[in-house]
Amino acid sequence: MSIQIDEDYRPREDEPFMNDRQREYFRLKLLRWKDDILKEARETLQHLQDENQNHPDLADRASSETDRSIELRARDRQRKLIAKIDAALLRIEDGSYGYCEDTGEPISLKRLEARPIATLSVEAQERHERRERVYRDD
Question: What is each CA distance from 25 to 16, 64, 67, in whole angstroms?
Answer without folding.
Answer: 14, 41, 36
